[in-house]
Amino acid sequence: MINVMTFTVLAIFVVIIVIFVIQKFSSNQKLNLTYKTKYKVLFSYIVVLLFATVIYLSFVQPKMAAIKIEEVHAPILYDIVYGEDGQVGELPEQFIKDEWEMEPINHEIEIALTSGMYDAYFSIPVVVEERNDQNQNVKAILYETPTTFLDRDISEQVSLAKLSIEGNQLSFYGEEEYITVYFRAIDKDMTVKQFLASHPYDVGNYFNFEQGEQVLYLSVPKKIKIKADEEFFDIITK
């Protein structure tokens, strides 16, 4: 059974073909039409177009709005860590990915980057806060903001680096290959666009991709030595 939208599209297609045929015959002087007849054809096209628009706004658009995915807006962790006054701001608790507690060996911990990560694109700031208490354990917190495309959370499809802790070593690891993500972008329908002002094509509106950020926070007792490759880990004392 043909649904309403299919019928509307077919009707518009038929009208366009009729107009094309009339214009072709008219240009070849095989068919002379009066202005009255041409206006009737144009009026018929407008009626079909308006009918399709009403159907779209009444039946199709409400269903699309019902399945609209909630937009995600996250703070920029880089701006919090590297504040204008040189002070590290408070990292948002709602973006805590995971927490660990470890007992360092020989008053030393090591932060490493394991195989599988793309070294040229990997960099994580490490915020270190020293404590004066008697507790010798190290507390590690990984903060992570979501990866978004068009303000939609796609973190499940594009995961960031993962962190594992063994002994006195914190190891970051990730995918060994690039991840390919396919998407479809739906623009305004032709029936709607014809009644709106035209705008230049803006690539940014269609490819607004924001990769998530990660920050490692360490709460350590004094006299703990931290070893890390400065090429990938920026150690910042809070």
From TrEMBL:
Query: Keywords in UniProt for this one?
Result: Membrane, Transmembrane, Transmembrane helix
Report the transmembrane regions from the record: 6-22, 42-59
| Descriptive protein name | Uncharacterized protein
Q: Upper taxonomic classification of the species?
A: Bacteria, Bacillati, Bacillota, Bacilli, Bacillales
